[in-house]
Structures are given as structure tokens and as C-alpha cells.
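Justification of resources, computational component.

The compute hours requested in this renewal are based largely on the per-chain cost of generating structure records like the one below. Each record pairs the submitted sequence with a full C-alpha cell output. That output is archived, and it is also reused by downstream analysis tasks.
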Amino acid sequence: MSKPSDPRADFSHFMLQCNDAAIRELAWVVGSEPLLFDASESHLLPPEFFQSAWQERLDWLRAMDDSPEQLAHLHAHLESGSNRLGKRFERLIEFWFKHHPHWTIQQSNWVISDSERTLGEFDLIALNEETGEQWHFELACKFYLSTRPSKNWRDWKGTNVQDDLQQKMDKLNQQVQLSDHPAARERLQTHGITIQRRATWLKGWFFHHFRDMNHPIQPRLAHRHCNVGWWCTQSEWRQWMSPSAGDWLELSSLEWLQPVHSIQHAPMKSTQLLERWDNHPFDRHQMLAQVIHSEGKFIEVSRGFVVHDHWPALSRGQ
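The structure output for this chain reads:
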């Protein structure tokens, strides 16, 4: 009897086979594991949703990867919008739904206002043609660093320390209930929309300080297979990373949405990175991927942030 398929292994295999970077991004925003999930948090989409979502469209993804015409359509769709990472993430998901035979997009980025102010925005409203249900999806892709070993969402900060996981979840919980507001209900009714399902589509990475990686403490509700990396300061990188510690790629923000990379620029050794940073200092952060070369692509074996020495404003011990 053959062994049952491992969805994560199947996903990794597809990512390695896929030739186009935008297709890998599209597959990642759908098929990667969610950042958080707990059955009691009803608005967080379960991992099973994402597993079936990418697997049922696997043939379509492969066909698109082999079609210059369809690839051009995807690239044009992405390039027509903002180059901010969050907006790129949203446009990838919008493309997914737009070309799905069982879903019809009804609204996207739909701002709701009353006579005095903007109340919020529906990221995506889509009709499931099979069930007849109208879904409101809130979409987010976030990257949070642990300021100390803690399950507390307040202790997980973005590279901008004004942003933390607690604030983001509070905002998402508020946004996903937008259809309860009288002004939103009126607008929905005018367009013939009745929201039956609400869902938070949350992807991203958690990064632990490198000294905590042997015994990491995940934030509350972290999915057991969520993406996990490390972080250190520039000074700590000098002390920690050996010159022989493999090959590294500096990732631009538009390369954060996939774990497999086309060979577009040569990897560097840790000593080369230090020399580069000495000549061209960065005052915020740099994401790095430690990679191996396989079948004409770079495959990540480790991912992390190097941040400036004054991040975060609070010391890790506080």
C-alpha cells in the first residue's frame, strides 16, 4: 500500500518544479500554511482551506507556468497595481479568484463611508457558485519579530516597531465585521449582496531572535507549521555568522512571498555581506535567505532579518 500524500511535501515539490516567479508567489499566497489558526477563532481560515484550494487548481497552475500568454496576463495584472508588498499579496489573491471556475468576485477594495467618515474597506467579496454563499475575505500578509520569548501578541513587532501582532489582529477583527455596520448593510443591500461567511486570510512569517531558535516560543494561536525564521542585529551577525556558513541572498520586499528563487543574482558569503553593508549601510532591516543551488534555482534552507543595532527601541530583556 502506498503512503498517503504529504500536502506540505507536495507543495514544496511543486514550488521547485515551477519556473515562473509570479506563479510561485501565486501558489504561496494560496497554498502556504496560515500564520495563525484556532478553531475557536472562527474567522481565521483553517489550513485545510488552503491545502484544498491550491491542490484543486494544480493543473491550472502548471498550465499557466507553461503558457507565455497566460504568464503575461498575470504579470500585467501585478504590474498594474501598487508595488507595495501588501497590495501585491491582495492582487495575487484577486487573480486567483478571478480565474477560479467556482468563484465570482463581487467587490474588491470596496471603501465604505457614511456622511462623516470612512468606516472601512471590504478587501474582497466573492460568491461561491457551488454553495451560493457570499464570502467577505480580509487579506493580510505580515512579518513579525519576537522582541522576547513570549506568546503575547504585543511582543511580536514588525520591522516598524509601531506595528505589532495584537494591533493587526484587533484591526482584522474589526474589519471582518464591517458588514454589521448599518451604512455597510445599506450599501451591500443596494448591490444585492448578503454576507453569509466571513474569513481572515492571514499569511506571513514569525522570526525569533537567533539565540532563541533552539527553544522558540510561538505567539498565541500560531499554526504548528507556520513559516518560522530568525533575526539578529548587524553587530550580532558579525559575531554569530561564520564565514563558511553557506550562500546568502539579499531579498527585496517583492521576493518575500516565496521560498524558491530564480537565479537572477549571485549569492554572497557572510563576509561579503558585511563588506557590502560597511560600504552601503542600511538604517532599517534586510531580509536574507540562506540557499542551496538545485535544478537551476535557489532553494531556501533558512530565512531571517538582519536589523540595525538600535532595533527594537526596547531592549530584549524588558
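The chain has one domain: 7-307. Strands lie at 103-113, 118-128, 134-146, 156-157, 197-209, 227-233, 247-251, 260-262, 285-294, 297-307.
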